[in-house]
């Protein structure tokens, strides 16, 4: 929807063109980020935690994977957070201009919801999961 409003409203609201580009980058980056979590980080974390519970030292490869993933994932959280903040700034805190259609209004509402969900995701990982994972 963000691309649609950029195409329709970009002439009168050029900020939505930049917002669409930022959102496209976030979507691309998040796809890779979530794939890293699901296919690399979480499996290594589960194996290391299972070893710890069994009283065995986690495998060095899993420990290195966890360490490297923690650094990369935390950096990616910062980059995505910066992009979200730029979108919020460009949209003037998702303020809906008076001359736009329902699709524009809905898009801004959904972008705000997306930002809120993303903040929860990052908070849970950065403040709960990652510190526990780093102890392995």
Q: Distance N terminus to C terminus?
A: 42 Å
Number of domains: 1
Count of β-strands = 0
Average pLDDT, to the nearest integer? 95
The helix tally amounts to 4
Describe the protein in words.
This protein is mainly α and 136 residues long. It has one domain. Helices cover 82% and strands 0% of the residues. α1 packs antiparallel against α2, α2 packs antiparallel against α3 and α3 runs antiparallel to α4. The longest helix is centred in the N-terminal third of the chain and has 39 residues. The radius of gyration is 19 Å and the shape is elongated. The mean pLDDT is 95.
Give me some keywords for this one.
0% strand, mainly alpha
In short:
The protein is mainly alpha-helical. It is 82% helix and 0% strand.
Question: Layout of SSEs?
Answer:
Blueprint: H1 2-9, H2 15-53, H3 60-90, H4 102-134
Helix pairs in contact: 1-2, 2-3, 3-4
